[in-house]
Amino acid sequence: MDDIVKQALAKWPNVPSCTGWLMLDRRGNWRMRDDAAQASGSSGVPIRHEALLGFINRNYERDERGQWFFQNGPQRVYVELGYTPWVVRLIVEPDGTLALKDQAGNDFEPSAVLADDEGAILFADTSAQPRVAVLHDHDLEVFADHAALAEDSLSGEFHWKDGVKLSLEPVRRADVASRFGFVPSPAANA
What we know:
The protein is α+β, with helices and mostly antiparallel strands and 190 residues long. It has 2 domains: 3-83 and 182-189, duf1285 like fold (Roll), CATH 3.10.540; 86-176. 22% of the residues lie in helices and 36% in strands. The chain is built from 6 helices and 14 strands. It has an 8-stranded mixed β-sheet. Strand 12 (147-149) and strand 13 form a beta hairpin.
């Protein structure tokens, strides 16, 4: 969390939080959702300002109930999730090795890979701070190039780096949030 955010929280500790105004879409884009977007259920307008995107990414956290938020100074802005709290891109490095980068540009080291019943691929990091991320749909071909899939496309294995093979596990999309302990729509929980 940025120091300026910590200072604002200390100065104004009781600023009410808000919901519905910020969304992380299925492709890892941050979107502003005004009243009209919220009323129509649309995703809103993509945020393109690099400094603002950096600020959001540095101050993006999870609360004790599994709701993700952006700490905007003293105000907590809860995030509507298009699917998972993280979206990753699968990159083939110049030396041929694979890398996963989340929407903030940070490395994502998976310990599990899953395929949902709607065709999405998810990576999970089940370390001390577990995370789950959906693979950007533009990278499905790269994934397929490094996977040995069964006919059902829901099982098989993914050939990760350094010779590590991760078993591909099926999951129902409807079960992902509860399985990984996050709330996709904090507004519905308010």
